[in-house]
Design a protein that fits this description.
Blueprint (H helix, E strand, L loop, with lengths): L9 H12 L2 H13 L3 H29 L6 H6 L4 H34 L6 H12 L2 H19 L2 H28 L4 H10 L3 H4 L2 H14 L6 H6 L8 H29 L1 H10 L4 H13 L4 H37 L3 H15 L1 H5 L1 H29 L1 H10 L4 H13 L1 H21 L1
Length: about 450
Amino acid sequence: MEMREQWRSRWGFVLAAAGSAVGLGNLWGFSYKASQGGGAAFILLYLLIVLVVCLPVLVAEMVLGRSTGSSPLLAPVKAGGKLWQPMGWIFVIASCAILSFYAVLMGWTADTFFHSLFFGLPQSIEEAKAFKDSVSNGSSVFLGQLLSLGLTAAVVSAGIRGGIEKIAKWSMPLLFGLVIILAIWSSTLPDAWLGYKEFLLKWDSSKFFAPKTIRLAFGQAFFSLSLGIGIMVAYSSYLNKKNQLPKEALIISGMDTAVAILAGMVTFPIVANFSEVIKPVIEEDKGSFITTFFVALPTGLSSLGITGQIITVLLFSLTFIAALTSAISLLEVPVSSLIDGFGWNRNKAVIFSTLFIFVIGVPSALSGKFLGKMFAYSEVLLLIGGFFISILLGWFVTRNYDQDLAECNSQIGVRRYLKFMLRWVSPIAIGFGLFVSVYDLLKPAAT
C-alpha cells in the first residue's frame, strides 16, 4: 500500500476543497435552479440550508476523513464498524455515477469553448439548433468525454501535492478572477438591473414552500458543496491536526456560495438583455438547462459581435476550469478507495477508475434526457450520504468528532454548536429534504 500523502499547506487543501465545491453546479446549475425556484425564494432557502444544515455535515465529513486517515470506502468502517460498510460503497458508487455524466458535460463545455473560439457564435435559431446538435451529438461527444476524463486522470495520477494541490493553487485564483471580470462586464449591460431583479429580488412566497423549490435548494446545496459523496472524507484524510476544520468549512462554503451568486450576476443580465434572441431558443427545447447554458447564451451574445465572442470564450473557459477541479475530486474518491481497500498503486487505480467511469457514462453521452435524469437522481444519493454522515458522527462515534475538533484547538462553543446541530437539526432537515425530493421526482410519473 502506498504511503499516504499530506497536503503541503493549509491553503492548498482549502483551494482544492473549494475547487471541488465550485463546479458546473455553481456556474449554470445555481442560476438555472434559481430561475426555476422563484429567484429570491430559492436563494434564501438555499442559504438557510447551507448555513443550518450543510455546515455541520461538512465539518463532520472532514472529521471522518481526518480522524480515520482512510479513504471514503474504509473510513465509515474504521470509525463505526462493519455495519457502516454500505455507507462507504454509497460514496464510491455516487462519485462514479456523477463523474460519468459530469465528464459528458465537461466535453460539451470544451466543445462550446473551441467552437466559439474558432468558428464563432450562432446567429439565429436555425444556427443555434445546428450548434446544439454539433455539441451534444455525434462522435465529438465521446471525444470530449474521453479527453475530459483523460485530463482529470492525469492530474489525479500525479498525486495530492504534485497534481491536485498544484492545479488548485493556480486554477482557483484564475477562476475567481474570470467570474469577477464577467460579473463586472455584465453589470454594464443596459438591462442588467432587470436581470438582477429577476435573480435576487423577485419574491414569490408560494415558491418558498413548493416541493420543487425545496428539492432544488437541497440538491443544489449538497451538490455544490460536494457533500454526502465522500469527497471531503478523501481530501481530509490527507490533513494533519493543525487545520481548524470549522474555519475552513466556513471558508469553503463561503467561496462556493460567492461564485454561485457571481455566476447568477453574469447570466441573468445576459438573459435580460438578449431575451428576444434567447427565449425562442429556450422555448424551442422546453426550457432545458442544457439548451439554456450551452446554446441560448452564446446565441444571445452573438449580437455583440467580437465582444460577445470574447465573453463567450471567457465564460466557457471559466466553466471548464471549474468543472475540472470538481471532476478531479470526484475521481479521487474511487482512486483512494482502491489504493486503501485493495492495495493498488495510484496509477493502476486511476486507469481502472477512468475506464470504468467512461463506460458507464456512455448512456449520458447518447441521451441528454438520460443525463438530466442522472443529474436529478444523483442529488438524492448525496442527501442519503449526508443523512448517514450526520447519524454516524452525531450519534454513534461522537468521540471521534469531539476529540478531532479539540485537538485542532477549535473553540468549545463552536464544537458544542456544531455537535448540537449535527445531532438534532441536520438529520431531521435532511430527512425532510430527502422525502420531498423523492416525492417531487416521482410525482410526474404518477400523474
